[in-house]
Structure formats: C-alpha cells, structure tokens
Amino acid sequence: MATMDANRFKTGRSFAEYSTNSKVAGEALRSNYAGTVIPPETAAKFAGFVHHVGGFLYVVVVSEEWCPDCQDNLPVLARLADTVPGMTLRVFGRDASPELVQAYSVEGKFRIPTAVFYDADWNELGKWIERPAKATELLQKAAAEVRRAVREQYRNELRGETLREVADLLARRLGDG
Length: 177
Fold this sequence. Notes:
The chain is an alpha+beta fold and 177 residues long. The chain contains seven helices and four strands. Helix content is 55%, strand content 14%.
C-alpha cells in the first residue's frame, strides 16, 4: 500500500478540528493561525504550484500538539492551505501514525512537524521538516551562548558544585566517611 492516498488522507484531521480538540496547545495553535498573514505574492506563487500539478496540492502534516515547532509552524501551513484554492491540509498525530513516521523518516530520524506535499495522483513532491533553517541557526547560536555562559560558571563555582554532588552521592551510600 502507498504511504498516502485519498482514503488515508481523509482520515487526517483538519487544522480547525486539530486545534479545537487540542488539550495542550489549542490556544497557541489558534493564536498563531490568527496571527499568520499570507502575503498576496506568496499566495499567488502557491496558486501557481497548485495549477502546475493539476489543481490539487495535498499537504500531510505529522504533528504533536505539545511540540513548540508544531505550535509555531503548523498554523502557518494551515493558513497557507486555507488561503490557496486547491490546497488541502490534513494533520496526523505522530504517535497515532507509526506507519507515517517510518515512511517519512530521514536517515532513520523523525522530527515534527513533518509536512509532505502530494500532487493529485499522490506523487510525493517533497518534505519540509521541523522549522525554517533560520530558526535552527538562531537556536544554535543561543545554545552556543548558553554553553559559553555555563563554562564561565564552571570556572567560577560549578566545579565546587560537582564536588558537592559527588560527595553527597557517596555520603548517601557510605555515610559521612
């Protein structure tokens, strides 16, 4: 069986259903959707893609509501699909869709959200995974800054904390020595 077809696609949830039934992040999902504006030139570009593939562009998004990247990016994709005629999006839970996780993994790894684009004949056109590259760059830069700050703290006080924790660990097992 193919990874995705019309019948399987119909079992996915619309963004409205997904965000309304969210127990964790419904408000964040809906707020991010409301705050997303698709510029006319972007809508026109995607309308051209839809036309190029015969009038239908299907978007399968594997997501989990607790995931910050899903909360940020799924609403953008949903707003895009709602703006562009012929573009339809459905959401599938990662945990509830192990066959999609397996099929959409890259190099044995799976990240969410994963958005997979299909034409009208269910030919896969491409995958977009997790977050924009620019967001990853910002996160990496911030992580590097945090690592530098922690290393500075090691020079100042964390070496002593290491010694205290190891002593406490052994004292619990061996007594005060």
